[in-house]
Amino acid sequence: MYRNSTCGKLRLADVNKEVTLAGWVSKIRKMGGMTFIDLRDRYGITQLSFNQEVNSVLCEQANKLGREWVIQVTGTVKERTSKNPHIPTGDIEIITSKLTVLNPSKTPPFTIEADTDGGDELRMKYRYLDLRRNVVRQNLELRHRMAFETRRYLDEREFLEVETPILIGSTPEGARDFIVPSRMNPGEFYALPQSPQLFKQLLMVSGFDRYFQIVKCFRDEDLRADRQPEFTQIDCEMSFVEQEDVLHTFEGLTKHLFKAIKGIDISDFPRISYADAMKQYGSDKPDTRFGMKLKELKELTTGHDFVVFDSAEYVGAICATGCASYTRKEVDQLTDFVKRPQIGAKGLIYVRYNEDGSLKSSVDKFYSEEDLKEWAERCNAKPGDLLLILAGEPEKTQKQLCELRLEMGSRLGLRDKDTYKCLWVVDFPLLEKDEELDRFFAKHHPFTSPKPEDIPLLDTDPGAVRANAYDLVINGVEIGGGSIRIHDSGLQKRMFSVLGFTEERAQEQFGFLMNAFQYGAPPHGGIAFGLDRFVSIFAGLDSIRDCIAFPKNNAGRDVMIDAPSKVEQEQLDELGIQLKPQEKNQ
Ligand code: ASP
Questions:
Q1: Whose CA is closest to 425, among 305, 287, 565, 329?
Q2: Which of 26, 64, 128, 213 can bridge 38 by disulfide, Cβ–Cβ 3.0-4.6 Å?
Q3: Are 451 and 468 in contact (CB under 8 A)?
Q4: DSSP state letter for 437
């Protein structure tokens, strides 16, 4: 054994014990005839002390060490004279009697500390060093505990963890597939699973009844802070359940995780329909840590010769509490914010409800103070508040107001990371129309069941059909989503036809599922939680990358192992793949 204790373990109760520790040199300090070393391992930091007068050879040896060298020391635990209250081992130190260098280290390219001097790209290139930093390792420890508690909770409820294949065919979750050429089947490709959706449904046909898997999924999408090309789902499916049963079980899992990991009791989760979420928040994943709901002003604003409002189908406002005193510059900043291309508003109208009760707006030319008062009342505004108004096409404008609401929520400090608001969004539309292509797509995926009472609308008004589909949202982040599935092969066929699949194509792509459904498919439904997002929320992180051991950068690259990379011509030949000239392998 290289050690009989760890750098996080020793306390005053261990004084006078002889111990052997092993770890990395984190810091070396020389003070007079003394040398102090902070020795680090996964469990913490322990101070080693060397006294020039008592053992000059050993002290000289210590003085020659460098940062991140791996050493082994033996010594006696002693109470420190100057204690460090910031670390759990701060009351003691080791009076070293033996020092062995296990491995020297090059000087690391950045400091291995919470406040490191390393930039993002550099830390990613040397991720194995970045992972030595406490703050990063703690995120992975949290991730482990969440996965572990998830397994415990589901295991106690008869869920079986079943692995499903990675080399499969396309799964329609709405993203682009990653594909893998097959050497043994020239000209043919596997697709990596966007989710195990089809397999978990087949497991229900097999009678597995309750399935889960903590599983990698792959989607070739443009990356954002909350997206990685490969990510992890807590994927689940249950038989003989209705929507209520699934919501109950996974509300239970969420509460269990909050309690077990953070010690927080979360009360029952409110529910909101998709339609109401869009109307009140302009989003299907509303951040409900604060109010500031969207209010419609259209009929109050029409008929005053203000073309912007008159020609708009929708006029909506939010009320920013206490912001009437915003300066011109602050309002201009907000205008610039909504005009950014990512948001795309043409302009921003404001009404100040001054402390003295007077109202002043950027459209005073068209509206009297009485008119403005009516708007203020609609928005439940009080003197001191500021109304921010956008107009245009309803869905677009609601989404823009949503962005503005979130921005104002952040500015006003209403989005505290330690406050958690969970919410179910239910009654999603079954279909979504792509106006350009003039065809419907599944909003969730094509196996989602319509609400039985809406089935007749499939023929007359498909856009109005609601689904038995639900999302779990925490603090404005979509943590998970699922649905009750279609288990009737006739209805599934009908769904494919609404989605524009010919019978042949449906058979080609999903024939195995429809066939399986003819052999006694039980009613079933499920859900999948994004583990990376869930951990980020618990850790208060802005990006899911920080809770993934080896993440990709925004260009989908692993800069540490330098992937993706070119391959040998021989490999391409074996696969029968010819690259276009500009992509040639040279
Ligand atoms: N497969 C779905 C997804 O990845 C989740 C589900 O419907 O269970 O979003």
A1: 287
A2: 26
A3: yes
A4: T
- The two structure tokens encoding residue 490: 């006739």
Is residue 403's pLDDT more than 80? yes
The tokens describing 273, both together, are 């329909």
Whether residue 483 has its Cβ less than 6 Å from ligand 1: yes
Q: Ligand 1 centroid vs 445 CA: distance in angstroms?
A: 8
Residue 429 Cα to ligand 1 midpoint, Å, equals 15
User: What token pair was written down for 513?
Assistant: 């599922």
Q: Please state the three-class secondary structure of 445-467 as a single string.
A: CCCECECHHHCCHHHHCHHHCEE
User: Does residue 74 contact residue 48 with C-beta atoms inside 8 Å?
Assistant: no
Question: What pLDDT digit, counting tens, does each position of 31-45 carry?
Answer: 999 999 999 999 999
Has this prediction a pTM greater than 0.90?
A: yes
Going by pLDDT thresholds of 50, 70 and 90, the confidence category of residue 222 is: confident
Per-residue confidence band for 584, with pLDDT thresholds at 50, 70 and 90: low
Measured between alpha carbons, how far is residue 460 from residues 381, 463, 466, 503 in Å?
Answer: 42, 9, 13, 21
What region does 89 belong to: left with phi over 0, alpha with psi -120 to 50, or beta?
A: alpha
pLDDT at position 350 is 97
Task: Average the pLDDT over 280-309 and give the result.
Answer: 97
Report how far Cα 357 is from the mean position of its chain's Cα atoms. 43
User: What confidence tier does 225 reach under pLDDT thresholds 50, 70, 90?
Assistant: confident
Residue 224: its pLDDT value, please? 81
The 3-state DSSP class for residue 317 equals strand
Q: Which of 170, 197, 247, 524 to mutate to test the pocket of ligand 1 (most atoms within 8 A of CB)?
A: 197
How many helices (H) and strands (E) would you count in the chain?
17, 22
Smallest Cα–Cα separation from 553: which of 119, 61, 27, 14? 119
Angle at 146 between CA 142 and CA 151, to 5 degrees: 150
Question: Does 160 score more than 70 pLDDT?
Answer: yes
Q: Which amino acid does the sequence have at 277?
A: A
Residue partners of 586: CB distance under 8 A and separation at least 6: none
CA-based nearest residue to 443, from 463, 421, 415: 463
Chain-centroid distance, C-alpha 338: 24
Burial of 8 (0-12, 13-18, 19+ CB in 10 A): middle
The answer, yes or no, to whether any atom of ligand 1 lies below 6 A from the CB of 482, is yes
Does ligand 1 lie within 6 Å of residue 150's CB atom?
A: no
Non-local CB neighbours of 359 within 8 Å, separated by 6+ positions: 351, 352, 353, 369, 372, 373, 376
